[in-house]
Amino acid sequence: MDYIDYYKLLGINKNASTEDIKKAYRKLARKYHPDTNPNNKEAHKKFQEINEANEVLSDPEKRKKYDQYGKDWKHAEEFERARQQQRHRTYSTGSEDQYFGGGSEGNFSDFFESLFGGMGAGSKKRETRFKGQNYEAQLVLNLKEAYTTHQRTVAIDGKNIRLTIPAGVENGQKIRLKGYGAPGVNGPNGDLYITFVIEDDLQFKRMGDDLYTVADIDLYTAVLGGETTIETMSGKLKLKVPPGIQNDTRTRVKGKGFPVYKKEGESGDLYITYRVKIPTNLSPKEKELFTELSKLI
């Protein structure tokens, strides 16, 4: 596997903080996201590399392994176990350096291959089995996309994977796709874990399976009652407004909230807060009428 400098890829130095890594990743993810580069294979590949770099460098344990072992970081644990075993075997010869070639600055890949590819001339070759490394990726959705069941294509390790995303996925929710990770060494492939990131919406706020929104009504409707039409996630909805409704009054529409994840036909509720708009720039006649009305109260 070719070595990828994750720090250089994200445009940061090796002393970068977790916050620096997060900012760099978000900036590049927006630039190379498949949704904004639908027919650009190079952008898709870049997006996958950026995801991989973020997954490694934002995890303290993985970052430590990467800093120490470079491109062989995924096999760090196996390497350490093998090195410990070899150390026990070489103690009897009086020098561990005889095996490592003079010190610990040798090539990790060569050492790893020499341990698991065969233990020297005349020795019996052992087959070692390791499950492939798991991949982790983020999939960014807006609220409307999370509201409906739909299909998306994600590029992982140069391959396009088509997913069906059920309605109702939540921010931070993680799903596992078995066998879509890195190839194993004489063993099964790793798995792919996808974490959903749901962007905030300007019109609706989601809390669990419920939605919250604001509806503006004019003063006359608030005083006299009437009807108003609001936008919902599934289209327009006409509501009756009772006379004398107060500013910031909240009402509930059952079943017009967010779909419940993997529960067909079930949805949360929609909560609407009425906001009464006070008229401005009144004409002389309107001011006169309001004045007369105030004398009657």
Question: Can you characterise this structure?
Answer:
The chain has 297 residues and is of the alpha+beta class. It folds into three domains: 6-116, Helix Hairpins (Orthogonal Bundle), CATH 1.10.287.110; 135-198, Urease metallochaperone UreE, N-terminal domain (HSP40/DNAj peptide-binding domain); 205-296, HSP40/DNAj peptide-binding domain, CATH 2.60.260.20. Helices cover 33% and strands 24% of the residues. It has ten helices and eleven strands. The chain has a four-stranded mixed beta sheet. Strand 2 (150-156) and strand 3 (159-165) form a beta hairpin. The longest helix is centred in the N-terminal third of the chain and has 17 residues, at 41-57. The N and C termini lie far apart (82 Å). The relative contact order is 0.09.
